[in-house]
UniProtKB/TrEMBL annotation:
InterPro entries: AAA+_ATPase, ABC_transporter-like_ATP-bd, ABC_transporter-like_CS, MacB-like_ATP-bd, P-loop_NTPase. Pfam families: ABC_tran (PF00005). CDD domains: ABC_MJ0796_LolCDE_FtsE. The lineage of its organism: Bacteria, Bacillati, Bacillota, Bacilli, Bacillales. This is Macrolide ABC transporter ATP-binding protein. Residues 8-231 form the ABC transporter domain. GO terms for molecular function: ATP binding. Belongs to the ABC transporter superfamily. Keywords: ATP-binding, Nucleotide-binding, Transport. The keyword Cell membrane does not apply.
Length: 232
């Protein structure tokens, strides 16, 4: 990829589902680009198609039509194994419900994607420790999720997402399960990660959350209806 090429290029992306014999268009010919280091919020109401778009951008699913270039690679042409490698190395996922394994400690949860990457134990343990220190959980590394507050669990999820230094962090309603104060703390952490160079793609239905991004892409009924820079 050349230095000037966007990190993400989406061209005429469309996707449909068939339910009870009826075909429903979920994404309708979407086109946009995202540059390395941007902080973009994708906003829309429930049923707008934003979650489907998140799955496409996260290489969790493949669109029916159109083109998706990630770091210069056409995603629709890649094998399942290659897609799994991209998810592990290039994309860190932060989910609304944390998605932590309950029987593992915080540090073991953070280590998981590093295990899949094939890193030796000592290296992945060090990276996991460093990530947990960055999110302020140095004294909670060996606690299980049930021993942590919701905000602390989301911090573990953020540490897990960033431990391997992926260029992209994909955050799906990261404050949805948190109270207002804790949600503000998590958003501050996400903004800091953006300042450190991570490309942030934030999926939300909340305009106040979206306003914290540099740019808003609004999805409605599967259509891209707005793509604008935030005034600040």
């Amino acid at each position: 990829m050349s230095a000037s090429a966007p990190l993400i290029e989406v061209h005429d992306m469309s996707h449909s589902y068939t339910m009870a014999g009826e075909t429903m268009t979920v994404l309708n010919s979407l086109s946009f680009t995202i540059d390395l280091g941007e902080f973009v919020a994708i906003i829309g109401p429930s049923g707008s198609g934003k979650s489907t778009l998140m799955n496409m951008l996260g290489c969790l699913d493949i669109s029916d039509e159109g083109s998706y270039l990630l770091d210069g690679q056409e995603v629709r042409k890649l094998s399942d194994n290659k897609l799994a490698t991209i998810r592990n190395e290039k994309i860190g996922f932060i989910f609304q419900n944390f998605n932590l394994l309950p029987k593992l400690s915080a540090i073991e949860n953070v280590e998981l994607p590093l295990i899949y990457r094939g890193l030796p134990h000592r290296e992945r343990r060090q990276l996991a420790q460093e990530a947990l220190i960055k999110v302020g959980l140095e004294d909670r590394m060996h606690h299980r999720p049930s021993e942590l507050s919701g905000g602390q669990q989301q911090r573990v999820a953020i540490a897990r997402a960033m431990a391997g230094s992926p260029p992209i962090l994909l955050a799906d309603e990261p404050t949805g399960a948190l109270d207002t104060r804790t949600g503000q703390e998590v958003m501050q952490m996400i903004r800091e990660l953006n300042k450190q160079g991570h490309t942030i793609i934030l999926i939300t239905h909340d305009l106040e959350i979206a306003k914290q991004a540099e740019r808003i892409i609004r999805i409605q009924d599967g259509n891209l209806v707005e793509d604008r820079r935030n005034a600040g």
